[in-house]
Structure formats: structure tokens, C-alpha cells
Amino acid sequence: MTAPAEVPKVSPQPTHRPGAAPWPEARRTARTAARPLPRDSRLLAEALGHVLARPLSALTDLPAFDTSAMDGWAVAGPGPWRLGGAILAGDSSPRPLEDGAAVRIATGAQLPRGATAVLRSEEGEVLGGILTAARAPGLGQDVRPRGQECRTGDELLSTGCPVTPAVLGLAAAAGYDALTVVPRPTVEVLVLGDELLPAGLPRDGHVRDALGPLLPPWLRGLGADVLGTRRVGDTREALREAVSSSTADVVVTTGGTASGPVDFVHSVLSDLGARLLVDGVAVRPGHPMLLAVLPGGRHLVGLPGNPLAAVSGVLTLAEPLLSTLAGLPRADAYAAALTTAVPGHPADTRLVPVTLHDDGGASALRFHGPAMLRGLAAADAFAVIAPGGADAGADVEILELRW
């Protein structure tokens, strides 16, 4: 892992667009730019990864009836017991037990009326049809009583809970065949830049595409379904066709957001009649990022082309937007104390990759330039450094890497 080191000072570079949004304001704008997608009913097998759109309330008591927690004998009274028959899991309406009687029972089987406890297999002995035990089981021993886990109508999980495999299991146990969920928003990634190579070593002025492999799994980790990644040539027409033909809820572009000779994102958005919500953010790295509403209510997040600057755009704009669309609750913010001073930009927020320590500290990492990923690959999180910097020991906001 890359060793922590003091972060070099940042020289003033007021190159972002006039009127660039302060970083906290840009995050708030992205979070409120949309509403959760319309709720939908999904079979359990299709609900994984979505978010509950309504509370999950129990449709039955759990357990639905008194059951045996162990293999053994259901017994009535203090013993010894007359033994007869057996009850397996799935047997319905077992015959009641009279005082002094016992029946063989399997784990999970319904307890017969009149049973007072379950005697474990290893604690009983059968001789001549009579069951005995060195010590009689206490009342209710090894019995899972009806409603032990929940009663019908109890709220098991609240709205906004992600549907995990464990949630699917709980929902099935509680009687559900389908769940009402907020679907995962769909995303398409458009990688811009004729200088990018899909494979091999950098050569002849061309560099490897780092964002094509990086962004899709990251966006999936933020709750999105990535429809695909398209490479788009450096022409206005190619970009306009790619954006207008996309069916995704959110289009994510990489590069082309500044004012270079082949930076066409702004002009294409103007061509399409899009509405800019964020046009530049006072943050380092990544200040040329943008957020726009496309015709029909879809969104476009324009990320800078430099890899770490693009990651800054994901944390600033894509993550809060996708969280809202997916119906995810806002993550609780928390702080960590810096182990060393971290210089700041005079006017802009800085996002600095850090490692986190068990004692609650955070150490800034080297290799944090806009085009660098080495620091990110070793990082646990990003620290939010306010304009002017932060001293050693200062508590700073932490942005976790949710992937």
C-alpha cells in the first residue's frame, strides 16, 4: 500500500468557470435534482439490489406455530413418558399429547398441543417404549414459541432499506412472494477521447482508457444498473447522437466538459435543449464537472477526463443523484482526525484520498494529482478539505468509497 505522506501545497489556479458552485452546494443540488424512480412490484427473485419502497411488515407470526428447536422428543409433563409415533417438519395437525406421553420430533416440526418441552435426543433413553431422562427438561425448553421473532403486522424493515439476500430470506419467511421496490436507476457511460486506447501500452501520444474499466463497477456499487459503456469519437455529431440515443436514466460522460478544441459537452447540451443545474464546481480535482437535465427528465453527469478528477465528479454529483433516484436514505456523515496537516486551495474545496486508522485518524496519501489513480487505489476514503487547508488533528468530513 502507498505510504502516507505530507500533501504538497496547492498553488492557486482559478481556472474553473466563473460562478462555479461551492462544493457543498453542488452536492445538495445533485441530491435534490430528481425524485426516486416510480415504485414497482418485483418477484423476490428479481428484487435483489433494489430498495424497499414501503415498509416490510410481517404477513404472519414468526414462527407461525410452536416448533421444535432440536431433534428429540416432544414431552408432556415431568416424565417418564410413554412413547408413541413421530412428527416430522411439514406434518400438519399433530395429535395432542396427554400428560405423561411423548412423541419423536424433528427440528422445525410443529409442536403438538399439550407438549410442555422438547427433550434432546442425546439426553433421553428409550427402553420398552418408555422414555426417561436423567433430568426432565424445563417448561418450554428447546421450543420456539409462535411469534417469538415477530407478530403479524410488525414492521420488520423500513422504507429505503436495500434488498440484500438476507432481506429476501426474511421477506420469504414473513410470507412475501413479491416486494414493492424503487428500481435501480439505469446508467450508460460514454467515454470520450480519440487519444484513449482500450488495450495495450501507451504509445504514439495515446494513453490507456482508465475510466472505462473503473466507472461501471463503481456506479453499480452506488445502486445503478449499468446498461453499457460506449466509446465516442471526438466530434460534436458523434456525442450528440450518443447522448440523444441513450435510454438510460443517467448518462455519464468522461471528458469534454472544459473549453478545449474538442470539448463538445456544453454545445451538445445546448443543441438538445438541456438545462444545466451545475456548471463547474469549486473543488480540486475535478472543477469542470457538470450536471444537466435532458429532455424527458433524464440526467447527464459530465465528468472531467482526468481519472482522479472524474472520481471527484462521481463523489460530488453522481453519487447523490443516484442515491436519490434509487430511493436510498442519505448516508450519515462522519469525521476523522487528520494525522498531518493538509494544505488547502485558497478558494476551493479539496478532495484528498486517505487511509483510515483504527484509532479514528486519517492519513493523506501521495499521488493525488488529477490524472493519478495510484493514491486512490490505496485509499479507504476521501477527506474533504475546506478552503485554506486543515491542521494536524483537525476533524474533517470523510467520504467513504461505497464500492
Automatic annotation (TrEMBL):
CDD domains: MoeA. The keyword Magnesium applies. GO terms for biological process: Mo-molybdopterin cofactor biosynthetic process. InterPro entries: MoaB/Mog-like_dom_sf, MoaB/Mog_dom, MoeA-like, MoeA_C_domain_IV, MoeA_C_domain_IV_sf, MoeA_linker/N, MoeA_linker/N_sf. The keyword Magnesium applies. Residues 1-38 are annotated as: Disordered. Residues 188-324 form the MoaB/Mog domain. Its cofactor is Mg(2+). GO terms for molecular function: metal ion binding; molybdopterin molybdotransferase activity. GO terms for cellular component: cytosol. Keywords: Magnesium, Metal-binding, Molybdenum, Molybdenum cofactor biosynthesis, Transferase. Catalyzes the insertion of molybdate into adenylated molybdopterin with the concomitant release of AMP. Belongs to the MoeA family. This is Molybdopterin molybdenumtransferase. It comes from Wenjunlia tyrosinilytica.
